[in-house]
Amino acid sequence: MKIIVTSLFVQDQDKALKFYTETLGFVKKHDVPTGEFRWITLVSPEDQEGTELLLEPNNHPAAKEYQEKLIAEGIPATMFGVADVHKEHERLKKHGVKFTMEPTKMGELTLAVFDDTCGNLIQIAQQ
Length: 127
Hints:
It comes from Oceanobacillus zhaokaii. This is Glyoxalase. The chain has helices at about 15-25, 60-75, 85-95; strands at about 5-10, 25-35, 35-45, 50-55, 80, 100-105, 110-115, 120-125. By secondary structure, it is an alpha/beta fold. It has a single domain, classed as Roll (2,3-Dihydroxybiphenyl 1,2-Dioxygenase, domain 1), CATH 3.10.180. A four-stranded mixed β-sheet has the order 1-4-3-2. Strands 5-8-7-6 form a four-stranded mixed β-sheet. The longest helix has 13 residues, at about 60-75.
């Protein structure tokens, strides 16, 4: 068994698609209409056959509450691996990305956390 898709609740699928592709650099794999919303998945440009990130609409009350509580507590919704947190931090800041935690060494990891503008905090980690 392996993870093929993981979901991330977003407030606005179009805004999220733009941010995750244009700012973060993910590649759109699927964009399929599913009634009112779309099945939008992204993949890493380095592993286009790897795990897909589903930009899931947060229209369900439980999804909205989950997102709001994570933000209120400062808890990242997910973590992405990067080769160099400091370099990625600087690149993203140049694109206007707001960080809630600057790069910080924690044991074997260096972490940073940013706001994705779509209702989530995202953690980036360098091992």
